[in-house]
Design a protein that fits this description.
Elements lengths: L10 H27 L3 H25 L1
Helix pairs in contact: 1-2
Length: about 70
């Protein structure tokens, strides 16, 4: 099980994290698309899983901002 940590962030800092994660997410989605085009199933799975985890974290942070 992953260790749980607590952070105290300002809204601006949380928004910066969301923005950075969004850029990272786009990179993984693009990499998955390229891997799909190259018929590389292992990479598609890896990049898609990473994108899903990033998206879940983004949503978790965004929910705290709403």
């Amino acid at each position: 099980m992953a260790k749980t940590i607590k952070l105290t962030l300002s809204e601006d800092e949380a928004e910066m994290l969301v923005d950075a994660l969004e850029v990272d997410l786009e990179g993984y989605l693009e990499s998955a698309k390229e891997a799909r085009g190259n018929n590389n199933r292992a990479d598609v799975e890896t990049f898609t899983e990473a994108a899903g985890r990033i998206e879940a974290l983004m949503k978790k942070i965004q929910a705290l901002l709403d």
